[in-house]
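W.,

You were right to be curious about this one. When I first looked at the sequence I had no strong expectations either way, so I just let the prediction run and decided to look at it fresh. Below is the sequence, 453 residues in total, followed by the output.
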Amino acid sequence: MSFRHCLLASAVVVSSLGFTASTQAALPFFSDKKDEVPSLAPMLEEATPAVVSIAVEGTQTSTQRVPEMFRYFFGAPQEQVQERPFRGLGSGVIIDADKGYVVTNNHVVDNADEITVKLTDGREFKAKKLGSDEQSDIALLKIEPDDLKALPLADSDALRVGDFVVAIGNPFGLSQTVTSGIVSALGRSGLNIGGYEDFIQTDAAINRGNSGGALVNLHGELVGINTAIFGPNGGNVGIGFAIPANMMKSLIDQIAEFGEVRRGLLGILGSDIDAGLAEAMNAEVNIGAFVSEVQPDSAAEKGGLQAGDIITAINGRKLHSFQELRAKIASMGAGAEVELTVMRKGKKMNVDVVLDDATDTTVTAAQIHPALEGATLSNGTDDAGNAGVVVSDIERGAPAARIGLQSDDVIIGVNRVRTSTVAEFRNALDEAKGVIALNVKRGNSALYLVIRQ
């Protein structure tokens, strides 16, 4: 089994959900006339014009290593660059009709040279990408604001397992397909789909091409952006994932203002709380995020968090895991004020924190891993403009120098996991087990440096 982004074009029509009379009365789009069948159609007639089809064209660039024999005899370069044109289809959601803002998944429009947005009424617009975020798989497009219809946003933090939802998108190139189901889980993480995971899980059929489409509640409000499926063959098996609307809104607001996501940074290390750890800490909670270390001079330290704290809620919303905390913090902008509910020595208390800016962080590498002692790390880019962790001010003979790091190296990955910032690098090292391989760009060369724990 595998997790797949649903990039290229869930073709199951909505069936009768068998609502009771009391449920129908609470939902205005259900008819109370005896000769009419209860239907989602009135709601969908309002919602579907805000869900669009996205077609992309572009060129993918790849490098292929040239065999040693050819380099020896013909003087060929070590690597050969190949370019291949591609086309793709996906979905998107109009979230601001006045500004012409369309949100979709980053993987739908990544590397696209031309983006075309098609509305349900047949109109087509050339779209401009205002910005995107690979780690959370969100992108913001802009089209001409000409008589558009936008979806209202729901409070996705108020979702409950069992709530009815409807997925709208363009699977397999089939335009305007609607499927229905329920929220089957919340706060899903650890799926290795993206860098920051806090997914809504649903059994509403989602297939390839639904990426970037809408997950709405029965009032036609946007609760999530469909982004990935779980299945062995790329088809629906009743497990799909969507980015919560609140998380999307926070990221899109940052892209709209700054052209990029400026992540918040709390400055802690930790893990999930489990029964054994809760017993050891004499805590009466089994769900939450355990704080094992508070980084010096971090937002967490300034706010009063302490090692041994168990974070059980963020801004009043229950927290299920450390990964969920990490994703929520990362989606909040630098300078955001956050209220954390913690258990400390058996007592419940609230801690107010103002998040640091994860995109403008310089740290002493020893704070991250002992083998990196003697180096200073900061966010930056390599010679090609790719984001990574820049090594500077390295001390001669220090552990960092002994593993082979040099000044001006740019670390872009850990054990083949892409890392673009110091915060991502720290988290990747925390999750790495055994031997650690650092993917390093040094000028025009790429190499691996090994840390043996």
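Here's what jumped out at me. The first strand starts at residue 3 and ends at 5. And, maybe more interesting for your project: Residues 7-26 have pLDDT under 50 and may be disordered.

Coffee later to discuss?

I.
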